[in-house]
Amino acid sequence: MIPSNVFQKIxxxxxxxxxxxxxxxxxxxxxxxxxxxxxxxxxxxxxxxxDDIASxxxxxxxxxxxxxxRGSGSGLSGGSIPVENSLVLLMNSWNRIIEIDRRNLTAWxxxxxxxxxxxxxxxxxxxxxxxxxxxxxxCTIGGNVAENAGGLRGLKYGVTKNYVLGLxxxxxxxxxxxxxxxxxxxxxxxxLKDFLVGSEGTLGVITKVLLKLLPKPETSKTMLVxxxxxxxxxxTVSSIIAANITPAALEFLDNTTIKCxxxxxxxxxxxxxxxxxxIEVDGPASVVxxxxxxxxxxxxxxxxxxxxxxxxxxxxxxxxxxxxxAFSSLARVRPTTILEDATVPRSEVPLLCEVIASTASxxxxxxxxxxxxxxxxxxxxxxxxxRDTAEIAKAEKAFEEIFTYAVKLGGTISGEHxxxxxxxxxxxxxxxxxNIEMMRRIKxxxxxxxxxxxxxxxxxxxxxEGALPRNSAELKKFTDAGAFV
Amino acid sequence: xxxxxxxxxxxxxxxxxxxxxVLVNCMHCGLCLPTCPTYAITGLERSSPRGRIRLIKSxxxxxxxxxxxxxxxxxxxxxxxxxxxxxxxxxxxxxxxxAARTQILEQGFETMTSSVGKRILLEWLFERQxxxxxxxxxxxxxxxxxxxxxxxxxxxxxxxxxxxxxxDLSPKISDSFSSLSLPRMTQPLxxxxxxxxxLTGCTMDIAYADVNKDTVDLLVHHDCExxxxxxxxxxxxxxxxxxxxxxxxxxxxxxxxxxxxxxYDYIVLNSAGCGAFMKExxxxxxxxxxxxxxxxxxxxxxxxxxEFLWKVGLKAAQDGKxxxxxxxxxxxxxYHDACHLVHTQHITKEPRExxxxxxxxxxxxxxxxxxxxxxxxxYNLVQxxxxxxxxxxxxxxxxxxxxxIIVTANPGCMVQIQYGLQKHGVHAExxxxxTFLRRCCIG
Lengths: 485, 443
Known about the structure:
The complex is a heterodimer of chains A (485) and B (443).
Chain A: H1 4-14, E1 19-20, H2 23-28, E2 43-45, H3 50-63, E3 66-70, E4 86-90, E5 97-101, E6 106-109, H4 115-124, E7 127-128, H5 141-147, H6 154-157, E8 164-170, E9 176-180, H7 192-196, E10 205-212, E11 214-215, E12 219-227, H8 230-242, E13 249-254, H9 255-265, E14 275-283, H10 285-301, E15 304-309, H11 313-324, H12 326-331, E16 336-339, H13 349-363, E17 366-372, E18 377-384, H14 389-408, H15 424-430, H16 433-446, H17 472-480
Parallel strand pairs in A: 2-4, 3-4
Antiparallel strand pairs in A: 1-2, 5-6, 6-10, 7-11, 8-9, 8-10, 12-14, 12-15, 13-14, 13-17, 16-18, 17-18
Chain B: H1 20-23, H2 37-42, H3 49-60, H4 68-76, H5 82-86, H6 93-106, H7 112-125, H8 129-153, H9 155-159, H10 161-169, H11 178-181, E1 185-186, E2 194-198, H12 203-207, H13 209-221, E3 224-227, H14 237-241, H15 245-260, E4 266-269, H16 272-278, H17 281-284, H18 292-299, E5 302-304, H19 305-312, E6 317-318, E7 321-322, E8 332-335, H20 339-344, H21 349-355, E9 362-363, H22 379-382, H23 384-401, E10 405-408, H24 411-423, E11 429-432, H25 433-441
Helix pairs in contact in B: 3-6, 13-25, 19-21, 23-24
């Protein structure tokens, strides 16, 4: 617990009405979108300015509490779940779009801007911000940068890291720095901003983001393709990519997901199909027509049962519906929904799908599988009940097998959700020790006192270096962190 | 499936408790947040649906007693249920907040004024329509004789500016009440196609008797025999939303008995809130052995007027000729979704398609049409300030499209939007869907 004299200092720093330590507020900030994980923070604060944040970070170093930055709390790996002795830093009210620069195709935004709000605003002036995580309606740009979020358009347009040109950051030392800028090319020293992208709030608090924008694609075409065999759909994906076509979206739904979608929304999907692909191409009209025709040819060649093509935007919305509500349809089947993001090189997607299906049946679990087939990022989604501890244990085992296999295929344990708390143990098991060691060293050199979101991504195991604990209170810090066990 | 029991005791008591199975269905993904009017104001998690569900769960788990802040957050919620529409997991959030409010009232946690006020207003006044009519008569007298002098003297402003503003929020009382003036049965000119029982409602009856008449006319125009069952009272929705669950059940039972005396195919009504709640009768009386089945069969017959007209097909013709001219020719018409029509009954397409049946006026979509106007039952009286803040957003959206006519389907929304338009000097007419369609079809 943060001592009361420190509380007093924080309160007078931000003002009493911006310091939230009631039991109700502590409960409200004890979780994010991650299933089954939560921890009560000691308090939460709404900072007014970058100076406020810098002062809080310095105070944290001086008095030994932890700071956990939080946007909308929609993360799926526990990145914004509080840790012990922690103060939650609420960034959601920092939601101004500061500038949209049409001459440089950039936007300066505050970290609390909702991703979808940015989409709408830039599209109003004919521009385009591609990253579109499933939670775009509520997730924040700050959170997207911290987690390096992806989305449906990853295959053609890349992920958040491809659009971050610059950052204003409060470092763990309390220094405020700006990294990067509007220059398209910039090789002056280390590419510092890229250390911060995906650092999950462990290396700095993001206070401003400079994003790259694109011209909005002229037109698009949407199609929905049914398959009797998963392998045919997977072959289609590989063949489209091998034909040098890059669709804007190339999404996959498995049979379990199709059945759940149909049960929920009655879209007249054939539930006997093993797989559905949603394919979207965008760009200039002539290119779109050409690509769409070629894709249809490939689909037919790989035994597509039926191809539906949208003639109007209205029809396109209908075709996208199945994919759009896939998660909702799965989520309502059972109380607890574990949405994972095992990712492999796209050529290995068929193997990953097979393993997900066989692992689910081996453990008797319901796992719906859908996701971004085009970029190898699948979302095996386990439908369960957190009160059923036996089934949860099985689900953990199943996911460990799936992740292990994904890594064997040259893939990764997380494509777009981040490591946080939820995948920390998998990262330690499935990443070469030297890589983890390098990450630890980076963290230790930038945040020697471990004040920013400690314990996320990897645990900060106490090492027998530096000053030894001198009294029982100092020693407790070590034992609590898991030393000597 | 059995699960291990919790070790700590719940701070909820009795039978009217939030359903734990609904609580655990929330996967705290946060997709409800951008749809919540109160979260939009405070930006605090505890004023969001996800936050409130977590607080209710904490009380159920024995981790949080029923505190002042807890009560404030439960009452701050509009119960607009926009979050239910957004929820991927289909969590019935409204039922949780309503049950939490019931607990607050039943365990005596409400302040004296609020608790006595609720009991007098909701459990006594609204429970019998004759009492409401009596108050209505007084209000009509007050409106005609006293309101103008009081307003002019600005005496209320002196006492309380809020009270002065609220005076304008009271609906205009109708000259005659529909529960008295509507015939008990009306026959269509042609052969009866449907037998329809009509709910006159509480506010609709005393403040919008003309809309009730329009609704009946419209039904008759569609070859319905319309029965107005005698002895019907307020449906109980206000009571359920504000925590008087037992009163709401009493009223549901009373209405079931009243409607059972008649033979009908459908119960049609024109108030979104009543429709939403009568469709829930089966659920709220599920544990009542005497009424469970009867409630279920009644709920199955309930339809909103737009839902009904869409189902039977709008007769946009008079004497076999398609109607080419409506009284709204050349005007701009828009539609505001009443929360309990869009979010609770999921009716969005029907009213729009019906309005768009005629082409001599221009239909424009209202931006954020599904965002609550802040009326929310008696919310605009008990949470006046936040209600006004929410209303401003609605008025701003209306101002942006400059309609001549705003069509909507709930008495609360009509009073609230009318008030907002007047306050902000925006010129537009608010009409109930039934009135609008009646004027189009019948003239």
